[in-house]
Each structure stands twice: as C-alpha cells, then as structure tokens.
Design a protein that fits this description.
The structure holds 2 protein chains of 2 kinds. By secondary structure, chain A is mainly α. Chain A contains 13 helices and 2 strands. In chain A, α1 crosses α11. The longest helix of chain A has about 60 residues. Chain A is globular. By secondary structure, chain B is an all-alpha fold. Chain B has one domain. A two-stranded antiparallel ribbon of chain B has the order 1-2. In chain B, α1 runs parallel beside α5. Classes of the chains: A mainly alpha, B mainly alpha.
C-alpha cells in the first residue's frame, strides 16, 4: 500500500470523508432522537455519548500514540467522583456547586494523570509494562473508592448529584432533561471535532511518528516523553469531562463508573470504532451500548459473553475497526476503478 | 513469638499461593512474553475442578492431581486456537486473552450458578507450632507450594525439555534452525503455566470463596509478582511473591484490607519504575 503515496492518500481521504459524513448523519439523528423516542429513552444515548468521551480520550492516547491504557475508567471515575463529592458533600448551592464539581472533577483527574504519567512516562515505562501498570491503577482506584466509603459511598455510591444550572430570566435554573441531553450532545460533538481538528495536521503526524519509532522522533529533536505526558493528561481530561458530566446528568455515581469492566469496555469501543479515527470510537460506543441493552433484555448473563467474543473478533476479524473491514469487504464484492480501489 | 509467628505463617500462606500463580505466569509472560489476561481464570478453573470432583465424591488429593491436567488441557487448546497466532502482536494478545477471560468467567457462572461453590478442606485439624495453634491445612499448603516450586526449578534446569524451552526463549529462530520444534515448546510451556495456576486454585479454594470471578483478584498481583521479581526466573518469582504477599499481609494488620491491596500495587509500581528489570535481574 505504501508504494504509491497518492493512492493511499486519496484512499485515506475518501475513508475519512465517509466517516465524517456518517458522523454528521448520525449526529442529526441523535439531536432529534428525544423528539421521537422520548426523553427517557434518549437518556440512554446521552449516557452512551458520555462514555463515548471516555473512548475518545482513550483513542487520543492509544490510537494516536499506540500506548494502551488498561485503566482508563480511573479517569472517568475520578471525574465522576470528583464532581459528585464536591457538589454534594460541601453544602454548596447547587447552582454553582454543579459547575464547581465539574471543574473539580476534571482537575482531580488531571492531577492523577499528571502524577502517574510523569512518574511512568519520564521513567521510561512503555509498551506492555505501561498497560499492566494502568491495569493496576484501575484496581487501585476501585480499592480506594471502597476504602474511603464515608466520602464515596462505598458499594452503594453517591446519590443526589445536582444537574448543571444555566442563567435564565428568573435566575439560575437547573437544566431540564431535554436541555441536559442537548447540552451533552453539543459538548461531545464539540470535543470530538476539536480533537479531530487538533490531530489532523502536523501534530497528528508528530504523534504518529512517536508511535512508529519513538527513538527516531527523539533524534529529530522532539521531546517525546513530554508529548506522551501531554497526550496522557489530555486523554484523562477528556475522560474526566465525560465522567463529571455523567455524574451531573445521571445524578448517581457508583463503582461501575470506575471499575475494570468499564476500563476494558473503553478498549472495545476504540477497537470496534477503529483505532485513531476519533469519530469512530464515539460512534462505536453508542452502537455497542445500544447492543448491550438489546442483548441484556434477552438475558443479562449473555452480555459478558458477547463482550468477550467482541474482544476476540476485534483482534482477528477487524483489527482496524468495523468500518474499515466493511469497506474492505465492500470493495471486494464491487470492483472499484480509480484510486482507493486497492484498500 | 506468639504474635509474630502467626503473622509470618499468614504471610507465607499468601506468598505460597502467589508463588504458584506467579510461577505459571512467569513461564507465560516472563519467558514467552505473552500478556495473558486470562491467567487468573486458570486459578478459578482449578478451584471449580476441585468443587466438581468433590461433588462426585472424589478426594481433595485426586483433585490436586487432576485439576492441573484440566487447566493444562484448556491452556493447550487456547494456545493452539488463539494465542499462537498473536506472538508478534502483544497488544492484540492482551485484548484476545481478556476476551477469553470474560468468556470463561461467564461460562462458569452460567454452568455452575452465581452462588459460591462448596469445597472441603482435606485437613481440618490444627497443630501446635512453637506454642501457637495454627490450621494444619495451611502448613501443608505452604509445603506443597514449596515442593512444586522446587520441582519446577529442577524441571527447567535439569530436563531436556527445560533446556529446549530456555533455548527457544533465548532465540526462537536459532532454536528452530537447531531442530527444536518451537511451536510445540511454546504450546507445552503455555500449558504448564496454565496447569500451575490451576494447581494454585485447588490449594487456595478451601481458604476462600469459590466464585467465577475469584481469579480476577489475582491477576494484577500475579503480574507484579513476575515483574517485581524479575521477568522469568524461579528465584525472581520467589522474591516477587515474598514482596507482594509479605507486604500485603503486614499491611493488613495495620489498615483495611482493600487499602492494603491498593497500597501494595502502588509500592509495586514504584519498584517497577526504579528497578525495571526486577529485584532479581535474570
């Protein structure tokens, strides 16, 4: 594929064009969804989009630099618990308490990521060691949540996290269900597009070079450890934004927003959506969570089996995501003339 | 003495379990470089084999003989069907074995139910050790674990297969050229690792709650046993499990158990950061 640069270039372009147009179509459907299926059912999409932010964060790290984190729910959970604790435990007025919680949750997660990331990345921990250490990080965070149950609510979790408030004509008012839904949609879209724009140019190429050969990127004068740290913290911030918004829109935070299952689900979202595509993982999150609902409604016990199967399929059948595999199949049954046909 | 000795023996109980689990992983991860996220589930398979054999009236000792074979067989099938295609793709191995782990856990739960399985300890008496009463089973377990460790060490060091294995690990291409069947060596090594974890599961079962998710508790810890100790040597596994098991047991006396487990992992991460090749570099 690499022999004819123009060929791969246009194929990538057409692929990303397909992805962007798919995303736009999907987005439109998501925006008007509550008007059709009702606000309650739409809250499923809202939560899925917030998990999508976690997947986006992980994709920024794993997809762009090749560093796999096996404990990304730590950052989602830090955001969620940070927001919940700050907004419920200090007796603040919910109109600004919710916002402070959002900010605090993100900062908290950012701090953890900075300390852990600085310690590991500048210590030269890479590859599978990094994955195992982040697995331990996920285990540690669950233990910490369970230990400090007076603040975190332990197994029962924290209730009564206030929704975000916005100024209206009669003072600060909490968002309605529908308002919350649209606020979340807009935020997720803005962040996803922002990340895509950020990674589409020179910066994306730089990250790619670090993924391909860190030593060579170093030799070219890039401070690769610093770049990796920035990506790690950035990906934690994105995941924490998802977590903090999740806390304020659902109103409840429990250990399922920090546990190992969620961390590994994030990996599946990215793997199915297509590593490094940014839009793909967000789309995949919504699809997989919808699938989870459907499968679980048949039998709750079936879903973990499906998840396991998805992992194995992701490795053997679609290592570059479902869309690319579908595209490859499509071009196999339909002979394509012109550039892009060999993809 | 009356307070220190039980503390020491409790530590030895955890250390000996971690030693067996870690030894299995040291073969799979330390030597072969396969990050096997389903390693903890072979402990579960061992414990469930014990429950099944005892429910048919079989003895504990029969289970201790059969369970490693069951674990090794399942390990062999998994290596042949999935892992052998992924030796060049470490991240893919992580994902595939994690998927396997989910499937194994959920299948066990679907077949046997979510309630804890009933297992019986073969020895229920306690004996007096230097003036302290201590459960005899735990002492036997520690002895068994040490015996298995010694046997594994001799197996790797003194047998023809152990030599083949060390050759393949040092240089697969060269080993191939010398006429060693590397595929066979990898498959057997993986099975041995799985079988060791299953043996640990049988020994552990009478001391814990036997449920389908029991193995996950040992996954992160067993990785750190291998990494902290120094990837892939028997003395390394001993050092690693002494570090992880010993620290955790001691911390348990001072702080809540969940925090102790968290703190041990934090310490382990710090050790890995400053001594990436482990306490006993190979």
């Amino acid at each position: 594929m690499s022999q004819i640069p123009s060929d791969t270039g246009s194929s990538t372009r057409s692929r990303s064009r397909v992805l962007v147009s798919l995303s736009l179509l999907f987005l439109l459907a998501m925006y008007i969804a509550p008007l059709y299926v009702g606000v309650y059912s739409a809250s499923l999409f809202r939560d899925a989009m917030l998990f999508g932010l976690m997947a986006l964060g992980l994709d920024y790290l794993w997809g762009k630099t090749g560093v796999l984190s096996f404990g990304h729910a730590t950052f989602f959970g830090a955001g969620a618990y940070g927001a919940a604790i700050i907004s419920t435990q200090f007796g603040m007025d919910p109109s600004y308490g919710a916002w402070l919680g959002l900010l605090g949750g993100i900062l908290f997660s950012c701090l953890i990521a900075f300390i852990v990331g600085y310690f590991l990345i500048f210590g030269g921990v890479r590859g599978s060691y990094f994955t195992i250490v982040t697995l331990a990080l996920g285990v540690i965070s669950v233990h910490v949540v369970l230990t400090f149950s007076e603040y975190t609510g332990g197994d029962a979790g924290l209730l009564g996290v206030p929704p975000l408030s916005f100024p209206t004509v009669d003072g600060f008012r909490p968002l309605s269900q529908l308002g919350q839904y649209w606020f979340v949609m807009t935020t997720v879209c803005a962040v996803t597009c922002g990340m895509w724009w950020l990674c589409s140019g020179r910066y994306g190429a730089l990250l790619k070079s670090i993924e391909d050969n860190e030593q060579r990127a170093q030799a070219l004068g890039h401070n690769t450890s610093l770049h990796l740290l920035i990506v790690f913290v950035g990906s934690a911030v994105i995941a924490a934004l998802g977590g903090a918004l999740y806390a304020s829109s659902v109103g409840v935070v429990a250990t399922d927003s920090v546990n190992l299952i969620l961390s590994t689900q994030a990996i599946i979202f990215v793997a199915i959506g297509g590593r490094g595509t940014l839009f793909g993982p967000v789309l995949a999150t919504v699809c997989v969570i919808w699938l989870e609902q459907e499968v679980s409604s048949i039998n709750v016990q079936l879903w973990p089996l499906f998840m396991g199967l998805l992992f194995i399929l992701a490795v053997f059948v679609f290592p570059d995501g479902v869309l690319k595999r579908a595209e490859a199949l499509f071009s196999m049954i339909r002979p394509v003339s012109g550039p892009g046909g060999r993809a | 003495m009356t307070t220190i000795l039980p503390m020491f023996l409790n530590a030895m109980t955890l250390v000996s379990i971690l030693m067996l689990v870690g030894l299995g992983l040291a073969v799979i991860y330390g030597l072969m470089g396969v990050i096997n996220m389903s390693h903890g589930d072979f402990i579960t398979i061992g414990a469930f084999s014990l429950a099944l054999i005892q429910s048919f009236g079989g003895s504990f000792w029969l289970a201790l003989l059969l369970a490693p074979l069951i674990g090794a067989l399942i390990g062999f099938l998994i290596e042949r069907s999935i892992i052998q295609f992924l030796y060049k793709r470490p991240l893919a191995t992580i994902m595939a074995t994690w998927g396997l782990s989910l499937i194994m856990q959920q299948s066990l739960q679907l077949i046997f139910g979510a309630a804890p399985q009933r297992v019986y300890s073969p020895i229920t008496t306690s004996v007096e050790v230097l003036g302290v009463n201590y459960p005899a089973y735990r002492l036997v377990m520690i002895a068994m674990a040490i015996a298995i460790m010694v046997a594994a060490y001799l197996f790797i060091r003194k047998t023809r297969f152990g030599l083949d294995m060390r050759t393949v690990i040092q240089n697969p291409e060269m080993a191939d050229a010398l006429g060693i069947d590397t595929k066979r060596v990898f498959a057997i090594a993986f099975s041995i690792g799985a079988g060791l974890a299953a043996a640990a599961g049988v020994l552990l079962a009478p001391l814990t709650v036997v449920i389908a998710q029991m193995g996950i508790n040992y996954l992160a810890r067993s990785f750190f046993v291998v990494i902290v100790g120094g990837a892939g040597s028997v003395p390394g596994v001993v050092a690693g499990s002494a570090f992880v098991g010993g620290t955790e047991t001691l911390l348990n006396y001072a702080i809540p158990a969940t925090l102790a487990q968290a703190l041990v992992l934090v310490l382990a991460i710090i050790v890995v950061r400053f001594r990436p090749s482990g306490l006993v570099p190979g």
